Amino acid sequence: TSTSQFASVEQRLAAISKAWQNLSVTEQHFNHLNEIPPTFRILSLHHSPDRTHLYGAVYEKPKFIPTAKGKLVQVGDACKVARVAVSPAALSGLVASAQQFREQSQAEVCSRDRALIFGLKSEGANPERQRYPLLRLSDILKATEDYLRPLLSLLRSPEPRIHISSTIGDLGKAKPKDKDRKQSVVPAPVEPETVDTVVLIVDRPLLELPLEGLLVLREGAISSVSREFSLQMFYNHLHQEEAGECGPGRPGVSNRTDHEKGQQRQRVEEGSAPRVIPPDAILVDADNFNPDVVDPFEEAQGPGTWLPVSVTREILDKYKESFTARWVGHLGKKLFPSQAEWEQLLGRCEGFFFYGMENFLSHLSVERLAAMNLEDCRLMVLLDLSRSYESMRRTLESSEHKSVPQLALEEPIETAILLSLVGVKSILANQWPSTLQDNALRANVLWENLLAFGKTTGKVARLLQRMEAGEMVSHDESPQTPKNRLMLRPQLHGSEWPSTSLNLVLYGLPNQAIV
């Protein structure tokens, strides 16, 4: 019968398709909240089907601290839920503004790169800019703040509270005959673990917006803001099924070899800050972080120090003694990967680095990727969305043979969704078009902090998102700008965040570290 055939097909898909497994929601999905680490704060925002209401929820794992009498007292708010009426027209306007910003960013990127190649001044490269100024990112952020204002109190992180034992207040009432000297010692306050990691689980329209720039996410002790597509997928990323894998909140489970590697790699650079891996981090083996595919068509044009192949070679050489000695990849078109090689590269590594022109998925078959199982790939870094005349011509020629749905799957958000479905646990990727100089900046900052300082994926992404505008390399500076200008401090500067800093976002797990 048709029912039995459907059941048979469903069972077969559950056995062979990683994407199907991640799309399936278990009946015990609310139990997934038990897997959330104590330092995580889950923020969920979803619209009703007709988009007239917006539902918001915040969840933190309950925390308990002991009192003087040995009882456990819960501190902090474990869960809050709210519903507010919203305007569908306002949401449509917000999404349209975000899409317009991406289109204008593409035009601006082409204008800047063209000015660099032909030696023009950036002010004169686009004469229409004075007449039609670009939509500013701050305008979109302000409109997003206004749209979410009814829920801002829900989204705001609570101030950390310290519970002090009640016996402190009785110290002055001790009787003279009491010989117990323990009362003279003031017990130390009991501090629950700080909630500094925010995970955003939002619906498709809100993914279009630069949520990482919201004021409520720039306050307090938040050190990481990442995105996820559903609670089920977040659980799938957190849940470690294979024995021997290290998991969040399970210190000591990771194997000894990984910790030995972490100790051996303390000597990245003389005089550098100590490399400290958080005890609850999920470890990614640097020796299995390969290969990398960099500008496979060699389409990048511009100053040599900004070209993807040059930047990557310098990074590989810098960390050769401690991390990148076994990284074997494809730099330039001399070692251009075929479709079969793409699949082999993606299927056999714990980490993958793509650095090149146009969309990442314009380089390989989307249909073949959707059928793959990439659950062994812990981390993927995509520095794409740059453009040159050659890359634009290639994509225009290839798009003639693709349908509209196929082209839509190559967009940044759809790319992240697809990679998450096939098993990739963390994806660092651009949201909108980027200049070669900006991607060179990100490459240096990312690998400096992931490798030299041992920061987690979430903290590295947040570091880039909190860059000061004054500390960024100006678009008008020469490529010979000193390298120390690339080391950016995570501080805020005024209300105007540059589009460069908020471009890179993290999808998936924020607590992975390379060892």
UniProtKB/TrEMBL annotation:
Superkingdom: Eukaryota
Region (Disordered) residue spans: 166-187, 242-272
UniProt biased composition (Basic and acidic residues): 172-183, 256-272
InterPro entries named in the record: CFAP46 (IPR039586)
GO biological process, one term: cilium movement involved in cell motility
Protein name: Cilia and flagella associated protein 46
Organism: Myotis lucifugus
